[in-house]
Amino acid sequence: AMTKTAGCCQGCLHYVFDYETPKTLVIPSIRVGFVFRFTQFLVVLYVVGYVCVVQKAYQETDSVLSTVTTKVKGFAFTNTSDADPRFWDVADYVVPPQGGDSFFVLTNMVVTPQQTQSRCPELPNPSTSCVDDCDCIEGYSDPRGNGILTGLCENYSTTVKTCEVISWCPLEIDTKLPEHALLAAAENFTVLIKNSITYPKFNVHRRNILPHINSSYLKRCEFNRTTDPDCPIFRLKHIVSEAGEEFQDMAVKGGILGIIIDWSCDLDWWARKCNPQYSFRRLDNKNPANNVAPGFNFRFAKYYKTPDGEETRTLIKAYGIRFDVVVHGTAGKFGIVPTVVNLGAALTFLKNKHKITHLNEVADTETVSDKLNVFTRDYQGLIFSIFPFSSRLFFCQTADKIHSF
Amino acid sequence: AMTKTAGCCQGCLHYVFDYETPKTLVIPSIRVGFVFRFTQFLVVLYVVGYVCVVQKAYQETDSVLSTVTTKVKGFAFTNTSDADPRFWDVADYVVPPQGGDSFFVLTNMVVTPQQTQSRCPELPNPSTSCVDDCDCIEGYSDPRGNGILTGLCENYSTTVKTCEVISWCPLEIDTKLPEHALLAAAENFTVLIKNSITYPKFNVHRRNILPHINSSYLKRCEFNRTTDPDCPIFRLKHIVSEAGEEFQDMAVKGGILGIIIDWSCDLDWWARKCNPQYSFRRLDNKNPANNVAPGFNFRFAKYYKTPDGEETRTLIKAYGIRFDVVVHGTAGKFGIVPTVVNLGAALTFLKNKHKITHLNEVADTETVSDKLNVFTRDYQGLIFSIFPFSSRLFFCQTADKIHSF
Amino acid sequence: AMTKTAGCCQGCLHYVFDYETPKTLVIPSIRVGFVFRFTQFLVVLYVVGYVCVVQKAYQETDSVLSTVTTKVKGFAFTNTSDADPRFWDVADYVVPPQGGDSFFVLTNMVVTPQQTQSRCPELPNPSTSCVDDCDCIEGYSDPRGNGILTGLCENYSTTVKTCEVISWCPLEIDTKLPEHALLAAAENFTVLIKNSITYPKFNVHRRNILPHINSSYLKRCEFNRTTDPDCPIFRLKHIVSEAGEEFQDMAVKGGILGIIIDWSCDLDWWARKCNPQYSFRRLDNKNPANNVAPGFNFRFAKYYKTPDGEETRTLIKAYGIRFDVVVHGTAGKFGIVPTVVNLGAALTFLKNKHKITHLNEVADTETVSDKLNVFTRDYQGLIFSIFPFSSRLFFCQTADKIHSF
């Protein structure tokens, strides 16, 4: 037994430190070698050229965390026939006021002042017109209507009678929307966008106000792709036109405009670059076939109280442009794991020559059939590893012939 | 020297274009071959079946950028004993008004009208009740209280005396919350959700209003999983019930409801599909053990001025359902890098047979021990590559025996 | 032919079930074996130590979906010379009121009450001061100004004359910002943050109110990294100081503060942990060189109507701290695909010994040159697979010599 264990341990040592290597055989054929080298070359080309250069697959990535503040500047004066002349500043036309990453600039509206909780005849349309009270079911409320029926049939005008409803009266008539935007001047408003980002995994912090920008420049600058690409102050008209839209058109019915800030970064020391790229795109559908509620609008109200304590409100159907600041980006930095994974995986294809079997004995003869065989075998090497069986059968003819040597 | 370099160059050429291949040996044993093929088969099965079909690991992916607009429709009429009859429309019950991806629908409330900056006795509770002024420290403010103590002890009612506070008076008594939702009718409100998404990497743009939908359909349709799965108009009651909740229950104390739109896309030409999938889930905890501030509510105020310029406000503690539209999704498209990586990596396991060493000489004998050996060696092949040392030692017994041939 | 096909099929069977293995040769040299084992050891070390333990590359990941509600508590009393004493509660100082994932706490302000649509002289500065009406172009509006010029030159004070403008008058004079925050008491306000998250791929749902927390604890607790790390109630002052800022400084000009909740989870059964980690960071730039609009502020207005129906407003330039709750995180769970990919890829490097060619015949001799060769060959093995040609040429000297055996 003693000797046995000794023998074993020796054997073990043997196994641990013996160096194994397959016996190989060289086929000194330029042609064959070339074919083999060429396939290798393709793999190397793929690894170096595509994986490394194009895809940067050696990097590990992280996606961006961002915060945005926006501040709109500018004022307008409206003087239309159907409303009093009025002066507009930021507090009037920006909703919501706290400059977040999504802000709405009022450009057009339908105002219905002096609404009170009361009763008034419905707006005339086939479903609301009536002849006498019998046509109006008390308490019924038509989803497409504006209130709850009182059961009475009243004169809407000298010619039309409609059912009376309980609602905020007078009712809003949103058909008379100005076809020229009320706040056309909004196109000259400017917005300052402050954006700070973080790549938590790499502990990288950046701002869209770059270090080289000084405050005097910021006071007067305005974003322009060619002259001022780093200025974070944007003229609304410029944003819209860069998105391929016409401000005045968009201002009438409203819309949604994306201010996309791309923070894609390459953080490797040999390619330090991490600057914001601005782009602009209309996010809602301009004029869709299925045109339900085109553009962008919403209703809000200002509530007042009359001296005698009655509540009144001014209903505003606000049309305008909502600007969404969308920040996205991916940071890449050299990582050992992705490198090894991609390299390693690619290398498997470098190995695909170990597929010639017992043909070796004849391989250094230079017959045509032989060259064919070697070639097929090389080819076989690649696809074989993917479909072992099929390819084998495909090649069995040749192989069989050779086998019967 | 001349000849030397010439020799070298020749040698180099030799090396560059010689074709190498390991000498191999065939063991014509069905059993052994089968074992080997079977392991190969498993790998292939894994690659084709799982990696490609199930995991789609050959795709590169991108995550979604999205914008959402929502528009709620509907009105209600409340006529309760403790408040005047009132008509409610969108401008009254939706907060905030600008239809973003998160909107709150008011369903229940505690209204405290006519609040002014003044003094009034605290609401009675152990910490606020007092006998005389000595019990009320002037200027002290109890975090759980409603104002700053004036130092006086006043009659809250004929029976109870409490410390007087400076605050918005009268104080809100939020214990008398209606146990039936005030705006029960909210369950029939509908919301139109417009959602545009982008996969920047693949430059793919989509809307949740699909091309085949026309506006006449949009005017009358309502989302229903079976009959109208593509209609972007949702009845609030339907949303809540799909989330497994009862609207009227939820309406009393409020809650948060997620409208989840899944935009997972397979953009490969052989499987073009990229449609939104709607699902609904309650996002807050229904009735947690640790029930602090259950449901969802917040306070806001409407500010008025009396004719004599004094500021008054109506404080509203708003209970209701906040609907969060959560858009997520991943697009996949065939990419050469992930394909090669996954395939290549899997292939390494195809190679795990190159592990038989100097047993070859005996491998074509058909003894039992031998078959065992071959099998163990095959097995060894797989785990060996992971733990070279251990497995070696494990097999050293056998190996040693054989080695001593 | 008959026999031929039979022969073929036999050949096929042969090919399908024969077991192939390369003839190998053992070099019983401890030194050489050691070199080879050492390289193997490094690979294994990398796979086990780094890929598995550090990088957890065997996991597939998913990123978090989250919803947040916030509820601020606290009140303040301001009693300054230039304004009436006033009591502030949540409805007064939190904007917007509906507790979402971003809320603003008012700490300082410039109030301009009783503004009406009218005319008043501009604030004096070089561009607005005038001598007579000729200096004021009617209808012109200076972007840096406050309104549209009427063309008149009026007395701003007894000493200064400035152009008159149409605007909301009186104009806001935002230079007289209190240098001590008006709502200094805001530092003692508390905020309850409720955060529910989901990892859709793994169908995992979590809340930041952990199961072991009971409501009595929640009523009195306050977040503290050491004593109460799981309490979701935060004192504003504590948040700010953890972010390395001084509340009272920040309160004067305002700023943006990130409450970052990290939900990184390891969902494998052997390492179940999925708890929120809170951290706090100032997101805007404290005192940048390019100091345009430092801090954080915005303007909003409360609109009133005078008894005679004229609209007046109180303009508030609100300075304060915006708290953004930023939720991020990645969940990892064992996945077969990433495991195989990473393992497989790493294994390719284990194979890099199959590189010795026709030196085998001499390999068991123990000459110095030989050992060198073996070593170089091993080394060659690794780099060769990456740059086949170059290394070959590099080694051709040696090789050539040997080749000429």
TrEMBL record, chains A, B, C:
<comment type="subunit">
    <text>Homotrimer and heterotrimer; functional P2XRs are organized as homomeric and heteromeric trimers. Homotrimer. Forms heterotrimer with P2RX1. Forms heterotrimer with P2RX6. Forms heterotrimer with P2RX3.</text>
</comment>
<keyword id="KW-0547">Nucleotide-binding</keyword>
<dbReference type="GO" id="GO:0001614">
    <property type="term" value="F:purinergic nucleotide receptor activity"/>
</dbReference>
<dbReference type="Pfam" id="PF00864">
    <property type="entry name" value="P2X_receptor"/>
</dbReference>
<keyword id="KW-0407">Ion channel</keyword>
<feature type="disulfide bond">
    <location>
        <begin position="221"/>
        <end position="231"/>
    </location>
</feature>
<feature type="disulfide bond">
    <location>
        <begin position="120"/>
        <end position="169"/>
    </location>
</feature>
<dbReference type="GO" id="GO:0005524">
    <property type="term" value="F:ATP binding"/>
</dbReference>
<keyword id="KW-1003">Cell membrane</keyword>
<dbReference type="GO" id="GO:0070588">
    <property type="term" value="P:calcium ion transmembrane transport"/>
</dbReference>
<dbReference type="InterPro" id="IPR053792">
    <property type="entry name" value="P2X_RECEPTOR_CS"/>
</dbReference>
<dbReference type="InterPro" id="IPR059116">
    <property type="entry name" value="P2X_receptor"/>
</dbReference>
<dbReference type="InterPro" id="IPR027309">
    <property type="entry name" value="P2X_extracellular_dom_sf"/>
</dbReference>
<feature type="glycosylation site" description="N-linked (GlcNAc...) asparagine">
    <location>
        <position position="188"/>
    </location>
</feature>
<comment type="function">
    <text>Receptor for ATP that acts as a ligand-gated ion channel.</text>
</comment>
<feature type="disulfide bond">
    <location>
        <begin position="265"/>
        <end position="274"/>
    </location>
</feature>
<dbReference type="GO" id="GO:0005886">
    <property type="term" value="C:plasma membrane"/>
</dbReference>
<dbReference type="InterPro" id="IPR003045">
    <property type="entry name" value="P2X2_purnocptor"/>
</dbReference>
<keyword id="KW-0406">Ion transport</keyword>
<protein>
    <recommendedName>
        <fullName>P2X purinoceptor</fullName>
    </recommendedName>
</protein>
<keyword id="KW-0812">Transmembrane</keyword>
<feature type="binding site">
    <location>
        <begin position="71"/>
        <end position="73"/>
    </location>
    <ligand>
        <name>ATP</name>
    </ligand>
</feature>
<feature type="binding site">
    <location>
        <begin position="297"/>
        <end position="299"/>
    </location>
    <ligand>
        <name>ATP</name>
    </ligand>
</feature>
<keyword id="KW-1071">Ligand-gated ion channel</keyword>
<comment type="function">
    <text>ATP-gated nonselective transmembrane cation channel permeable to potassium, sodium and calcium. Activation by extracellular ATP induces a variety of cellular responses, such as excitatory postsynaptic responses in sensory neurons, neuromuscular junctions (NMJ) formation, hearing, perception of taste and peristalsis. In the inner ear, regulates sound transduction and auditory neurotransmission, outer hair cell electromotility, inner ear gap junctions, and K(+) recycling. Mediates synaptic transmission between neurons and from neurons to smooth muscle.</text>
</comment>
<keyword id="KW-1015">Disulfide bond</keyword>
<keyword id="KW-0472">Membrane</keyword>
<comment type="similarity">
    <text>Belongs to the P2X receptor family.</text>
</comment>
<dbReference type="GO" id="GO:0098794">
    <property type="term" value="C:postsynapse"/>
</dbReference>
<keyword id="KW-0325">Glycoprotein</keyword>
<keyword id="KW-0067">ATP-binding</keyword>
<keyword id="KW-0813">Transport</keyword>
<dbReference type="GO" id="GO:0033198">
    <property type="term" value="P:response to ATP"/>
</dbReference>
<keyword id="KW-1133">Transmembrane helix</keyword>
<feature type="disulfide bond">
    <location>
        <begin position="130"/>
        <end position="153"/>
    </location>
</feature>
<keyword id="KW-0675">Receptor</keyword>
<feature type="disulfide bond">
    <location>
        <begin position="136"/>
        <end position="163"/>
    </location>
</feature>
<dbReference type="InterPro" id="IPR001429">
    <property type="entry name" value="P2X_purnocptor"/>
</dbReference>
<feature type="binding site">
    <location>
        <position position="317"/>
    </location>
    <ligand>
        <name>ATP</name>
    </ligand>
</feature>
<feature type="binding site">
    <location>
        <position position="190"/>
    </location>
    <ligand>
        <name>ATP</name>
    </ligand>
</feature>
<dbReference type="GO" id="GO:0004931">
    <property type="term" value="F:extracellularly ATP-gated monoatomic cation channel activity"/>
</dbReference>
